[in-house]
Specification:
- The chain has helices spanning about 15-25, 40-50, 55-60, 65-75, 85-95, 100-105, 105-120, 130-135, 135-145, 150-165, 175-200, 205-215, 225-255, 255-265, 270-280, 310-315, 350-365; strands at about 25-30, 35, 55, 125, 215, 220, 285-290, 295, 300, 305-310, 365-370, 380, 390, 395-400.
- It has one domain (about 5-400): Cytochrome p450 (Orthogonal Bundle).
- It contains 17 helices and 14 strands.
- α11 (about 175-200) packs across α12 and α13 (about 225-255) runs parallel beside α17 (about 350-365).
- By secondary structure, it is α+β, with helices and mostly antiparallel strands.
């Protein structure tokens, strides 16, 4: 049984998820060697019970090449580790990546958003992805890290290579896909290594300097840990926010009543961002490994087996969300799982929410009569695990209020 939506289903995977919740809520795919988990409570259990469902990326791999496994272990850092290592890493990184530091970025996020809109307003059309949804978060993160935003083309090449066309999770240590990812990981590490060394000698007011200085109970982050977090922040931090912003515009274009409601009351923008995260979540699935024999959804799972917890399905579960296939910017409560849950709850969630809120508010304030500029169907990325558009051509008029 296939537990991953087919390429044809990925334009709209939600009917596939609904069918799986109904008939195969916990299903095993012999070909891929993964369990698929689709219902909200089961997904929640996978995300929160880290003793039973491990995040250790090396457990996902088949094969015994110690060099490859060590590279995977070092490169996965915070996202791919279990306690006690995960707890130490999170404590150290949290010292540098604080809510206060994120909140202080709001004026700069607004400034970047306005500048990006200034560039396209005279032409009354834009590719929302290329002209705003991508450059905004990558510029913010580049500035946080203290690296030049002029290197954005390099960042985009890395991101496209790592997430573009991701049909399967690479798990075989001998596969070309694993080798490609490790080469990119090494290239990114080399890029950041010189910056880390420079910040050790002469700290500045940026995130890398804060990571270098972070200390908990006499322990500091190793160079490998800092490099891995820079990689994660640069890629996960901007790819997912790009998807969030693009998906938000699509949701509003598809739901004119909600679009009008939001324009009438911009105080609803934070709630709208949460509904986008639920309704068209940037991350559709998270991988885990069964650490010990267990039962889930009436199925027996054996230690060592791999799991895909389908967040995109859990967030449309009709037993948790009333009218789950309706986009509602006033939805409350909205206990979506878009940022994960438990010890691996996304450390960058406050930044993603802030960027979504600020950018969406400014777009709604400055642009009116938003519409698709082309009749062709929207171009969704081919990945089954990340949901976002490759381009979003729009036409619009400048708001008189601007």
């Amino acid at each position: 049984m296939n537990v991953v939506p087919s390429p044809a289903q990925r334009r709209n995977p939600y009917p596939f998820y609904a069918a799986m919740r109904q008939s195969n809520p916990v299903a095993y795919d012999e070909r891929a060697g993964f369990w698929g988990v689709y219902c909200y409570e089961d997904v929640r259990q996978v995300l929160t019970n880290h003793d039973t469902f491990s995040s250790d990326r090396t457990r996902l791999m088949t094969g015994r090449d110690p060099n490859v496994l060590e590279q995977v272990r070092v490169g996965s850092s915070l996202l791919g580790s279990d306690p006690p290592r995960h707890r130490l890493l999170r404590d150290l990184i949290s010292r540098a990546f604080t809510p206060r530091a994120v909140a202080q970025l709001e004026p700069r996020i607004a400034e970047i958003t306005n500048a990006l809109l200034d560039a396209v307003i005279p032409g009354r059309q834009m590719d929302f992805i290329a002209d705003l949804a991508y450059p905004l978060p990558v510029t913010v993160i580049a500035e946080m890290l203290g690296v030049p935003s002029s290197d954005r083309p390099t960042f985009k090449r890395w991101a496209d290579a790592l997430v573009g066309g991701t049909d399967e999770i690479p798990t075989d240590v001998t596969s070309p896909e694993v080798a490609k990812r490790l080469r990119l990981q090494q290239e990114m590490a080399e890029y950041f290594r010189a910056t880390v060394e420079e910040r050790r000698r002469a700290p500045t007011n940026d995130l890398i300097s804060a990571l270098v200085a972070a200390e908990v109970e006499g322990q500091r982050l190793s160079e490998a840990d800092i490099l891995a977090f820079c990689n994660v922040l640069l890629l996960a931090g901007h790819v997912t926010t790009t998807n969030l912003l693009g998906n938000a515009i699509v949701c509003l274009l598809d739901q004119p009543d909600q679009h009008a409601l939001l324009r009438q009351n911009l105080a609803l923008v934070p709630s709208a961002v949460e509904e986008v995260l639920r309704y068209e979540g940037p991350v559709q699935a998270i991988a885990r490994v069964v650490a010990t024999d267990t039962t889930l959804g009436g199925q027996r799972l054996a230690a060592g087996q791999r799991i895909l917890a389908w967040i995109g399905s859990a967030d449309r579960d009709e037993t948790v969300f009333a009218e789950p296939d309706r986009f509602d910017v006033t939805r409350h409560p909205n206990p979506h799982l878009a940022f994960g849950l438990g010890i691996h709850f996304c450390l960058g969630a406050p930044l993603a929410r802030l960027e979504g809120r600020v950018a969406l508010s400014i777009v709604l304030s400055r642009l009116r009569n938003l519409a698709l500029a082309e009749p062709a169907p929207l171009e969704w990325a081919t990945s089954a695990f990340l949901r976002g558009l490759t381009r979003l051509p729009l036409r619009f008029e400048a708001s008189a209020a601007a």
